[in-house]
Amino acid sequence: MRILVADDEKNITDAIGYALRREGYTVEVAYEGEEAEQKIAAFQPHVAILDIMMPNRSGYEICRKYENRDKMGIILVTAKTDISDKVLGLDLGADDYITKPFDMRELLARVKSLLRRFQKFDQNENEMIQIHDLQIEQKKRRAELNNQPLELTPKEFDLLVLMTTNLERVYSREELLDLIWGMDYIGGTRTVDIHIRRLRQKLGSYKELIQTVHRVGYKAVGKIK
Q: Does domain 2-121 have CATH number 3.30.70.260?
């Protein structure tokens, strides 16, 4: 698995790179935003760990550019502790965030959790899901609505697959956090709400496919008004 680490603090970048290589990952590093973008294009990492505040291009800007990426997870690293900064990162399509200073073991756990999500859904044998004019090809990780591609982030796609393969099954926010982000994900259930909201926006006229179950969580339905 290929991991890109980008942070303008060289000691942090090199320490993360060293820890990831010891775990057996292939690692590239970058020390500013433009270099990070170039290496994403050339290296095609499975996970990009991006510092938010980098010269030439911020982690937010890179995240926004690759919002509709396929099979690349993004973990934002930030020294900011305000919840609005974290929500912004998730709103821009990041899969996870971690706040400085952090324990290296926690970061490694988040990387492993993110990679497991991809592997789990890639191995699913049920290739095609169709609900009216919505088509989902799981192995190709592609979704279309009215013959137009849906540009979904990896987590949005995984949520859509999970819920549409289990129509009418009600999931609590905690269950979705566990199933999509993994048991070792430390972020709160607010993460789930943000991704569900973004998924609904992208579904447009099909937004009622994902319904809120009051005081419980969410479910997908097979019939849309």
A: no
